[in-house]
Amino acid sequence: ISFQEKSFNSTKVALTKRKMLSMASQLFDPLGLVLPTTVLARLFIAELWDEKFGWDQPLPQAKVTTWQKLEHELNSVSRFTFSRWFDFDANQPIFLHGFADASKLVMGTAVYLSQGSKSVLLGSKSKLAPRGDKNRTIPQLELSAMLLCAQYTARLLEIVKSDFPDVQVRLWTDSEIALYWLTSSSRKLKQFVQNKVNAINSIFETADWGHTPSQENPADLVSRGCSAQSLRDSTLWEKGPTWLADQSNWPQWPKPQPTSTTVLAAAAEQQVNLESRGDISKI
Q: How far is CA 181 from the centre of its chain?
């Protein structure tokens, strides 16, 4: 599958919020195949909203320069192609893997179909994190990303079942705190956390969830964003983590070793503010 190649060039027009939004919307990517790059444009436009620029107000040169860098990335990813041939045997075990991750700016998910040594990206989805006075802690955002992952994976599961009725689901996050919230039964959770936990458990069972290291979580690329070249070079994005190929190597959860007292205390107190992640300047 390929995109209709675009050639963005803002050097000949006066840049405004309206013009940038129009250009950013031209790259049609409903499957989220290049989402880690296009999400950077969404974040930039969100910044324009935060700074209350008018629709047709000319933007300062610093903003124009940043946008022109983003244009270069959009031009690049519009030339990407992806294989959509799933050469799987319906009589052998097939797994649908959903990955969730969040930064202070973006909540994201990426979903893969795997069988043996073969795996393929089905699609990804993102949602910008609440801004302003609605800010949440990173663990709360991770929990929200898990809900986004569960919802998106459930929709894809219905499609995949038409060809592979016995497909099995596994869901992954790199947030130990969110996983402990998901399995919590010993104390009353705060309302926001409890609502998310209930919503997640209404879609998939707690046992379907596991913990993946952050560096092996492809949804991390969605929540952080990355350049077109980094996305092209990423086998993690194209195929998911290497351990998908061998079920015996899947990360164990709960971990056989005791979890750190910091994580356990944070999960219990539900008051965690970790260092912000997500940076649109990384390109």
A: 20
